[in-house]
Design goal:
The chain is of the alpha+beta class. Helix content is 38%, strand content 17%.
Length: 358
Amino acid sequence: MSTRLRLSRLSRRTLCTGETVNTVHRFRVPLSTPLIPAAAGAAQRDFEASLLLAWADATTQLRRTTGVRLPSFIAATHPTGDGLAISVSDPAHLKPLLRHIRPIRSDAVPGIPGLRLHPDRDFLELRLLAAGNNVRARIRLLGVNRRQAHDLLDDLTDPREVPRSPHWDTMPPAGRLLSAVLRRFPLWRAADRIQLGVAGETVVVDWLGMPDRFAVAAVLEQSDCAIQDAGVRVSLTGIANHIVLIPRENPERATVTEPWAAWHVLRVTRTRVWDGMGPAPCLDDAIPPEEWEKPEMRSALAAREVSTVYRLLRRTGVSQRQIAALTGQSQSEVSEILKGRQVMAYDVLARIADGLGV
């Protein structure tokens, strides 16, 4: 296999999570650990699995009752050993999910036992509480500010009017695999439609369109982004892509040999499709960390002189298109900033800083 297809370790993670390379740098993923760490503890694992099942139930019900296909609310995932953050594509896409899981703001309103919603300035956090209000598990939804969070809550009807999802009461044995799928969900970002199912300890994933099912199966089973202790079966018939995730006990795993052809297929899919879907990974174009330590760059960052930062990046060979992909701006916006336009809005500054990983 040609070395030009051999993506860097962090670039491979971005294809599974939807992150930018520079955002991944902030997580400092050690080379000795899995690229996509599993949830730490049963509570966090089951919380993530329940959220994914609730989203699947909500979207299925919406499609059956109204014919409307709800886009995924997940733009990117940020998995770590002790938690999970999710970049939200559009806060409005959370409405059916929140109606389904019924997070509540105070003990005065009945809802899902132990589930609380905590709005912050730049994110919305779902917390699962134990006795004494200790946090058992949490999932942070990035890109939802405090005002948007309160608007979403105000849009909910009385939680007593809607029965709670059964998944919150009894987590199926497939919880570990469901959590793993959620942490890698942006693999399916280009799919026209995706549907999840659970049968005992197995998880079924069906989708229309891209990405290629064999490429997805190879990455989930054979790569360093693989789901640990899981096998993958691929359907050979039908118009829908179909894979089944199966738990394996005491698997005999040899040294990982990366499925470079599968990675290449997923990278081509990203290039062709994701460019029209908002910010996407800028795979092998990470900005060298030493660039941020240079005096001129440090001075520009301290003064929030975005135009100077962009000019210094251009000097190192980073293109306007690459800057746009990292920061979620249009290329024309980047061009205007390079010409001297000041960036004053806090939310824009925060998005640029997050995209550049500074």
